[in-house]
Amino acid sequence: MVETRKTKVSVSYVTKQYETAPTKIDKAKSVFFKTNFPMFWAVRGVSFEAYEGETIAVVGTNGSGKSTLMKMVAGIVPPTSGTIDINGETSLIAINAGLRGNISGRQNIRLKGLMMGMTDAEINEKMDDIIAFSELGKFIDQPVKTYSSGMKSKLGFSISVHTNPDILIVDEALSVGDATFNRKSLNKIKDFQKQGKTIFFVSHSLGQVREMADRVLWMHYGELRMFGETKAVMDEYDKFVNEFKGMNAKEQADYRREKRAEQEEFSLDDIYTGELREARKSGREPSDEEATAIYKSVHTKQNVAVWSKFDKFLIVFVILAMLFVADKIALNLGMRNIMQNPTSMITNWAPDKLHELDEKHKGAK
Ligand SMILES: Nc1ncnc2c1ncn2[C@@H]1O[C@H](COP(=O)(O)OP(=O)(O)OP(=O)(O)O)[C@@H](O)[C@H]1O
Fold first, then answer.
1. CB of 175 within 8 A of CB of 206?
2. Cβ–ligand 1 contact at 71 (below 6 Å)
């Protein structure tokens, strides 16, 4: 059957490789020095298409790559290889997504609105609705770092649904609020379904998945294990979960170790050979042109920054020069102060500016 619906998201052979640096300091070190942490493929050659108006649930055990895949679709994390084509505006709702801890909930609403290209007037018009939906009451003027994860999720959810995206990605944000808020959020998602939006939602609630999803994408240790109609995939997923629960502790640990080893030893050529194997299994020998096209597509590398020694030297030089100029000309702050607290130059500015915009808005009411 020829698919007539509009393709909204097209993902081809996407991977994400991470260095398993144990701490943030180790990660920072690896930017400037040669380090030897093992590499690990969190997503291994995922391909799928999502159409206008459908709701796709993303399931899988902890650490299977669901959030990483969704962050790549939302454009927040770049893939290591492969391509993602988006036909529309995406908005990611995830616990903490894009919220700044040092500024208030209200200032976060303004900041996120500005980042999404809304004008001051548009933000002012929606401000009261967003605050009302979030149910945060007077906490809206408290710094977000004082919020619980449920409160952050309520704020994130409320902001995202009011920015009216046509592709909505909900990453577990439906399960961290209280029962009433979750029901309200589900109803909002159902409204979006009726409006024909494309929705992805990551969920560990299998009942919610069966109730809401048209299709299900099952991630398994970085691979797309199955993608299809909700009932067919969920029946298989349930079967796997029950089989896994039926194993003893040693069998479970062995299984995890084996899969983890596959994630470390994986290479892009595995996707290529897997594709050829699948084609042959279905009785079709790919032509040389087809094989070359698959090879090229699999090996499409994204522009992940690889810094040369000169780049690193330049970065340090530019930072020092900026600090010097800021000290001498613009801010008249002592060099020692800046060295002790470099972020003060930025953090002092942002809340003041957002506060000024809020005051203007209140005055205009
Ligand atoms: N920034 C990162 N650096 C290194 N490893 C990462 C990073 N982000 C995720 N990972 C690793 O990638 C794997 C997939 O993580 P991801 O958060 O996508 O899984 P998930 O399926 O969403 O898990 P959960 O259901 O527990 O939320 C995990 O092993 C995780 O530790």
1. no
2. no
